[in-house]
Specification:
With about 280 residues, the chain is of the alpha/beta class. The protein is about 35% helix and about 25% strand. The chain folds into 2 domains: about 150 residues, P-loop containing nucleotide triphosphate hydrolases (Rossmann fold, 3-Layer(aba) Sandwich), CATH 3.40.50; about 60 residues, Alpha-Beta Plaits (2-Layer Sandwich). α1 packs across α10.
Amino acid sequence: MKIAIASGKGGTGKTLISTNLARVALEKGRVCLFDLDVEEPNAHLFFQQIKQQSQAVEKMIPVVDDSICELSGVCSKVCEYHAIITLANQVMVFPELCHSCYGCLEMCPSHAISEGKKQIGQIKHGTKNGLQLVSGLLKVGESSTTALIRDVKKFPVQECEWYIYDAPPGTSCPVIETVKDLDYVVLVGEPTPFGLHDLNLLVQVLQEMGQPFGVVVNKSVPGNERIEKYCAQKDIDILAHIPLRSDIAGAYAKGQLASEVLPDMHVLFTELLETVKQKVDGTVS
């Protein structure tokens, strides 16, 4: 079962939910938790007993041999991202724009382009007591977020009963790369004007993709029903409410899992996991 935890904006509680779902899922089977918020991964802070190993992630960058280049301009024409351009006397490559599609290398009539490498980040991975933790970490200054997320998702792991993906915030390509081909998406919304606005944007994206999803209301406050009214109008399932409480925030600030230190939160996340399982089973059937 493959589940993504996503939100339209940062700070809504994706990591809170993904880490605690991983914790209670461990009671039911093997779990693999992917931290795909590669610009600022922090799931490892809640599983510091897991020692992670690192390996570099590289992407292909075209290297032009000026001595045999005929300046045909074919490479520039096939590049949809304008990462390579042909001038009067040279070909210029812009690595930060390159999507490593290999089009220029394959189409060059003079075979003047070879495959270079550029490190874009790291994948960190470790295992302990049935939990596999895989994190991506984008190199500072790099913009290849989607490419790194794709590599992290493909990282070979032992077979598990549960695969949980902590998505980056927002509605752009990295989020789409994260949630595509998964069984279900848990959307995290906070009952604020900004929270509702950005939740609505991500709802539209998932509906366009045809991806099944439901909403968890985090930082829920009695009397504030912004999210509930919105979900009722859009016929969206509300999966759970996580209350705005100092003990939950305090545990999070200490790097503790609320489902381990607060009995009622263990019940809440266990019920949330079972609810998601029932939704997926219903979707599949």
